[in-house]
Amino acid sequence: MKSTVFLLGFLLLSVGAFAQQAFKIASPNARVNLTVNVSKEGKLTYALNLAQTSVVKPSALGFKLQKPAISLTNFTLISADSSEFSETWNPVWGEVKSIENHYKQLKLRVKAIPANVLVDVVFRVFNDGIGFRYEFPEQEGFKHFIVADELTQFNLATNNKTFWIPGDYDTNEYLYNTTLFSEIHALAAAKKEKDIALQSLIADNAVQTPLMMKTPQGIYLNIHEAALVNYPVMHLMANTKTFGLTSHLTPDAVGNKAYLQTPFNTPWRTIVLSNKAEEILASKLILNLNEPSKIEKTDWIKPQKFIGMWWEMHVGKATWEKAGGKHGANTENVKKYIDFASDNGFDGVLVEGWNEGWEDWFGNWKEEVFDFVTPYSDYDVDALLVYAKKKNVKLIMHHETSGSVTNYERRMDKAFQFMKNKGFETAKTGYVGRIIPRGEHHDSQWMVNHFNRVAAKAAEYQIMIEAHESSRPTGLHRTYPNWLANEAARGNEFNNAPTLGLVPEHETILPFTRLMGGPMDYTPGFFKMHLNQFIPSRTTRVRTTLAKQLALYVTMYSPLQMVGDLPENLKVYPDALQFIKDVPVDWDDTKILSAEPGEFIMIARKQKGQNQWFVGAVSDENSRELLVNFDFLPSGKTYTATIYQDASNADWEKNPEAYQIQKVSVDSQTKRTIKIAKGGGFAISIK
Ligand code: NOJ
Ligand code: CA
């Protein structure tokens, strides 16, 4: 690891109470230009340009506090200093082997008047965007404080094309809306959604982050946050007339936003920007703004591919609950999954519905549901662990909390100890429904602290975590690399939702939005597209081609990838299954070949420690041809590429399961056009 800090010297400008002070700071490559201003009247603002083009106009910074009841909106400048930092670090797992973290920093110490509260506002300017945060240093007369709201603005320079989901304190499981910024209507969009278990809408102009936009000049920008610790999730309120956004923090049960004590640093507010869509997907800015791993010894942390005793319940073949006679998680059935995982080289088998409590788990807002240690009587956990071990497969634990988080907090140690004793290494957690403590939201400060506590606690037991219905990630997997993935968006399982389901463009938007903060357990790998296999009256269906399901293993980066469908459906197409068997879940290198949000994405990745490459490409509802330039391959070597593509008559709607496979020789000079069907995609393994 190389690490350098250059101090550019103290930049204290004219600190007269009435003078205006302006600071300009450019990214290392001078493309991203930030201006920070403390006006004569005491307003603290920043503005952002990409080269000469204004992207964010002067936007105010500040806070409203509930206790003490003061505003931090007028400031005098105390001091300013700037520095440059550069390091290269290696993630425990990831899309690339090493990550460059190079930025210029401006730190302003300001004093809020008339309250006399000191705040350090820190800006970091990278080649692909900026991050800034508020730091409340230790100081006399100001220690404990309660935030009424954060008043950070993002005043957009233009009426951008915007990819948004409605602001909601409890869920991110929405379809994306693509409109001009001026056309955002969150409540109307949210009302169309009938299949989301719990909605807590904010306002017609509230949207969630990561918020992806494209300016009329073709600049791509993404607003999100990094390192969300001890603070609520930030939503954004849009002013559709002025193209302004203002932060809106998630309230707690009594309406406050955050309970803080100095010294305290807020999460970073991030704006990733580039005139190339590919560079947004390649950005590591959010990871770079997170703290290095708190876990020193990380050799027990393993990326993994797994199947689940799971989709059976979603499509009505079995039930989570034992009562009713269709219990999926019985010993014999789980053995079949272990056999299938073992036969295909998958690392794990997730078993849902294994523990007592599912008869009455959802909807009653009750405190005591699961104890996380008591298996159903037809589930012989010890025998299955022995069986799985023999077959070189790991069982993955499921901790559905049903939103009763107090209950989970009380039982977490016992639950992780139970896992440790038995040899479980990974837990999928879940937070379906209304939260207990009652009145808290999935996105409130208390819950953010809970999710982070789970990651830290699990690490003590050397357990890996993936969380469903958590708040959306902000790059904390750098700090807790045992936190492999989250759901926190509308996943592939929503294909089975009765009303809207999914749309083919969804997977061309997610990498630009939800995935900016971290990996998702999207659960790709559905081969049976009509979901009426067990309940003939069901009209739900997967809205992709089969080849696109393969491509998702490359385009939807995660160190934890499920093979979603039932073994009996996967077995129908053994030659397509071969791609899922081959595709790795950890990478040395990633090249975003071409992408446009809402339209298509094509990515090449090099397998960790192997000279093998994989390409994935996905399209929206349109068919298209994409030119694959194999110049990412090292020159002078010939490889065999196996191309899994849509058959010429494939179509997500009319003929989704039709695909073809061909083997061709490729080298770094090869260029090849590949056709994608409507709602389709292709996947290539290159050996
Ligand atoms: C919702 C999760 O997203 C899904 O994967 C899980 O099967 C159910 N909750 C039950 O826990
Ligand atoms: Ca879910």
TrEMBL record:
Pfam families: GH97_C, GH97_N, Glyco_hydro_97. Residues 1-19 form the signal peptide. Keywords: Calcium, Hydrolase, Signal. Its cofactor is Ca(2+). The keyword Hydrolase applies. Residues 25-292 form the Glycosyl-hydrolase 97 N-terminal domain. Residues 310-489 form the Glycosyl-hydrolase 97 catalytic domain. The keyword Hydrolase applies. Residues 586-687 form the Glycosyl-hydrolase 97 C-terminal oligomerisation domain. GO terms for molecular function: hydrolase activity. Monomer. This is Glycoside hydrolase family 97 protein. The lineage of its organism: Bacteria, Pseudomonadati, Bacteroidota, Cytophagia, Cytophagales.
